[in-house]
Design a protein that fits this description.
Among the domains are: 140 residues, P-loop containing nucleotide triphosphate hydrolases (Rossmann fold, 3-Layer(aba) Sandwich), CATH 3.40.50.300; 170 residues, no CATH class; 84 residues, no CATH class. Strand 15 and strand 16 form a beta hairpin. It starts with 41 loop residues before the first strand and ends in a 6-residue tail after the last strand. The chain is globular. Strands 6-9-10-5-11 form a five-stranded parallel beta sheet, with helices on both faces. It has a four-stranded mixed beta sheet with strand order 3-2-1-8. A three-stranded antiparallel beta sheet has the order 14-16-15, covered by helices on one side. The longest helix has 31 residues. The chain has 28 helices and 20 strands. 37% of the residues are buried. It is of the alpha/beta class and 830 residues long.
Length: 830
């Protein structure tokens, strides 16, 4: 039975749709087998392209049809902008709410920033990590909510380029789901935005910053950066505000607010030494306050500790002496100045086991702290989500955009304490978790994009450790890249998409997985095509097609060829005409004429000079890469030259035919009277001429080189004489105004009662291995061309053309000799 066709009803099939397979579970007979989960495909509008993200065979891209063109995006309402602003902030840690601490010693800088922004000036706030820059930006943003029509927009500059920030700004103000405008449309839309844009953790300056400011003339930017970030150019008119450390009194006040009490004299002296060492950075005082708070808890009565069980898994407690008064707290010495300068190991040692495990994962991921929703699965504790609150309260993590990272200097301190000993295993565990999570049907692309930094960090660690997986399995890094990359594309986080594809391609190469490697190259080509990088798109797609061709992946190869055809269309690599001299092979030049002859067809253009004809050949081969991508006026001019040359050539041919007919004599066999509308030149019986010099044959062609034929009278039924050949090719269809002509048996112009087969009725020749042409087999020897009455060239004649141009275009391969006769190519192309 054919597996592609369903059988009759007696075999359980009705010929239309297969019936559901009965359930194997007798307790649930009403439920069938679970169908496999379908691959999530998402359709995006990327500029003028319609992109279908396909995580199986590779994304498909095409020009967006007019019916798929989206309407101009609408602006978000104030409520929608407020919701987007809330999503741009880091989530509140799980656990009891922490009291909000006031920002001390920053009132002067706060007022200065508000004044500059109110005048429409862009400002860059420069301060080292841990100086309280992010907290100050939040306060200034709250003061400027009513300054601009579009309010305040918060963005993050962490690992963002100018293009990424422009797209983030666009999607914050405009409601455009599943749409990524091209550069021209993007700049036209963001030019109309008027808002105070707060960008923290900016990583670029100079010309890139000028590009961002020029694209948004109606926006005032409040930029937060570190001193090592490239400064703005002198022409950018960006004001600079430097953020210094706190004074000694301010540092002591921060510690007292963290501890919740007034410091003792010993503690105040300790805080003064810390202020001198830390240069007044507020982060150091927050961490110092956490150290004193932990010290107070450790000094509490052991009964209280046992009752609440807070630090039972952190470090052993020393029982108070036997002679100590009841209820007296144990005296814990103050941390040394070295421990206060690098407090991360001591702070971590006094945290819960889940918090310490979260720190190990953060160290393994390059400082990226996984979202608190992932901590229970990674750590193996259902209450591990509360670990983020512990880390934030101790000042070990700081907010970056909508996420948390290890605070400045914490990663290096933890690595020195041994928290990076199992970093590779932790990163591999995180990669397996994210690979499962990103591919789950319930996880949206937006959620995957929000966790992009941690996912990419897991990829960066696991890719160099990739080894060849067992047969039937896939490497962890490859699996993570295959599941995360389509989500990044669908979520319009194309910076992360590109990085995931690069990491995945390298992992697939190390693992020896050619199919996955072809997928990543295909996706990189599609991404390059969407961003206008045509040369890169071509190279990536060609690599993908080559790999998939070796794997016999038909569907993937088809998708790659479609994308490559779109690249050729965008770059102007359209097959055209290549002109070559006689006897020379046409060079591999660029072809831009879309109306080139089909492959394998060669036209012969007779020319007046005795040097021979010009061969015009349609060459579909690929053009040299150095000439690709050049279009515009040069391509248009070249196509015009080709068209003009073809027209001039046609006029010359027509003039030659008319001149030959006008200058011929009164010979009754002159070509103007006897030549048909479809003159045919081909190999004669001699193999290299028209048979005019062959003994026993008279072509009557004279000096023109064309075969002639004499008319015959119609038969009794009014039709022309028929051939005795049992397999005629059919009568010719003469054009209006042209008379039918048939060959004469011996050159006698008198009519024949029986007639002779016309050129169009001659049997179809067959080409022998030696390249000669022979007639259909018969019992009698083959007569000469003059005896058979057929075309002396030995080639069949097709239906008559309707014009002289058609007559010329139907001429076989040949060349014009100096005497005017045509000699055919020994191996004509059909």
């Amino acid at each position: 039975m054919d597996p592609t066709h369903q059988g009759p009803e007696e075999y359980g099939r009705d010929g239309h749709a297969p019936r559901s397979r009965p359930s194997r579970d007798p307790l649930s007979p009403d439920f069938g087998q679970h169908a496999p989960a379908l691959a999530r495909t998402v359709r995006l509008v990327a500029g003028e392209h319609l992109l279908t993200v396909n995580p199986v065979d590779g994304s498909e891209i095409e020009l967006s049809p007019p019916t798929e063109r989206p309407e101009p995006p609408a602006r978000r309402t104030p409520e929608e902008r407020a919701e987007a602003d809330h999503a741009a902030r880091p989530p509140a840690p799980a656990g009891p709410a922490r009291p909000e601490q006031p920002l001390l010693g920053r009132q002067e800088e706060r007022e200065q920033l508000v004044r500059l922004l109110a005048r429409g000036r862009s400002v860059r706030l420069t301060g080292p990590s841990g100086s309280g820059r992010t907290s100050l930006l939040d306060l200034v943003a709250e003061d400027c909510e009513d300054l601009a029509p579009d309010g305040v927009i918060r963005l993050t500059g962490h690992r963002r380029t100018t293009a990424d920030l422009l797209h983030d700004l666009f999607h914050t103000v405009y409601d455009a789901p599943l749409r990524r405008p091209d550069d021209d449309e993007l700049r036209a839309l963001v030019r109309e935005i008027g808002a105070v844009v707060v960008v923290d953790d900016l990583e670029f300056g100079g010309a890139e910053l000028d590009e961002l400011l020029d694209a948004t003339p109606e926006c005032a930017f409040l930029l937060g950066a570190t001193p090592d970030t490239p400064p703005p150019t002198a022409d950018s008119a960006v004001a600079e505000v430097a953020l210094s450390g706190l004074d000694r009194a301010g540092g002591v006040e921060v510690i007292e607010r963290a501890v919740g009490r007034v410091l003792t004299e010993e503690e105040a002296n300790w805080a003064g030494d810390l202020w001198f060492e830390s240069e007044g950075l507020p982060l150091r005082f927050v961490q110092a306050g956490a150290l004193l708070r932990q010290r107070d808890r450790l000094s509490a009565d052991a009964v209280v500790v046992d009752e609440f069980g807070v630090f039972e898994d952190a470090r052993p407690f020393t029982a108070p002496p036997a002679d100590a008064p009841a209820g007296e707290a144990e005296e814990i010495p103050l941390p040394s100045l070295g421990e206060a300068a690098a407090p991360a190991p001591l702070l971590a040692a006094r945290l819960s086991a889940s918090a310490r495990a979260a720190l190990r994962f953060a160290v393994a991921l390059g400082g990226e702290v996984p979202h608190q929703a992932h901590l229970p699965a990674l750590v193996g504790d259902t209450h591990a989500d509360a670990a983020l609150g512990e880390l934030a309260a101790c000042g070990l993590v700081s907010p970056v955009g909508a996420r948390y990272r290890l605070a400045a200097g914490v990663r290096a301190q933890l690595e020195a304490a041994g928290y990076a000993d199992d970093a590779t295993d932790r990163a591999r565990t995180a990669a397996r978790h994210y690979a499962w999570w990103a591919g789950h049907p319930s996880v949206t692309p937006a959620r995957v994009c929000a966790e992009a930094d941690a996912v990419l960090a897991a990829l960066a660690v696991t890719v160099p450790e990739t080894e060849r997986a067992a047969e039937g399995e896939r490497a962890t890094a490859v699996e993570l890249a295959r599941t995360a990359a389509p989500a990044f594309a669908a979520g319009l986080h194309w910076g992360a998409w590109e990085q995931a594809l690069h990491e995945g391609a390298e992992a697939a190469r190390l693992a020896g997985e050619s199919a996955d490697r072809a997928y990543f190259h295909h996706e990189l080509g599609v991404l390059a095509l969407c961003t206008g990088q045509l040369d890169r798109a071509r190279s990536e797609l060609e690599a993908s097609i080559g790999l998939r061709g070796s794997l016999a992946d038909k569907r993937g190869t088809t998708a790659g060829r479609r994308a490559l055809a779109l690249v050729a269309d965008r770059s102007g690599d359209v097959p055209g005409l290549v002109v070559a001299a006689p006897g020379e092979e046409a060079p591999d030049a660029r072809r831009e004429d879309p109306s080139s002859p089909p492959r394998g067809i060669t036209a012969v253009l007779p020319s007046a000079p005795p040097t021979g004809p010009t061969v015009v050949t349609g060459r579909p081969a690929a053009a040299p890469r150095a000439h690709r991508g050049r279009g515009g006026l040069r391509g248009l001019a070249r196509r015009n030259l080709v068209a003009a040359g073809a027209g001039a050539l046609l006029v010359a041919v027509l003039g030659t035919v008319v001149t030959l007919g006008a200058t011929s004599g009164n010979d009754p066999n002159r070509p103007s009277d006897t030549v048909g509308v479809n003159p045919t030149a081909g190999t004669g019986l001699g193999g290299d001429d028209l048979g005019g010099d062959d003994p026993g044959g008279d072509t009557g062609a004279g000096d023109t080189g064309y075969a002639t034929s004499a008319p015959t009278d119609p038969g009794p039924d009014g039709t022309m004489g028929t051939s005795d050949d049992p397999t005629p090719t059919g009568p010719a269809e003469p054009s209006p105004g042209a008379s039918s002509s048939q060959g004469s048996g011996s050159g006698d112009p008198s009519p024949s009662p029986t007639g002779s087969p016309s050129a169009s009725q001659s049997p179809r020749p067959s080409t022998t291995p030696s390249g000669t042409t022979s007639e259909s087999p018969s019992d009698t020897p083959s007569p000469s061309a003059s005896e058979t009455g057929s075309d002396p060239t030995g080639l069949p004649s097709e239906s008559a053309p309707s014009s002289a141009a058609d007559s010329f275009s139907s001429a076989p391969v040949g060349s014009a000799s100096p005497s005017g006769a045509l000699s055919s190519d020994p191996d004509p192309l059909i």
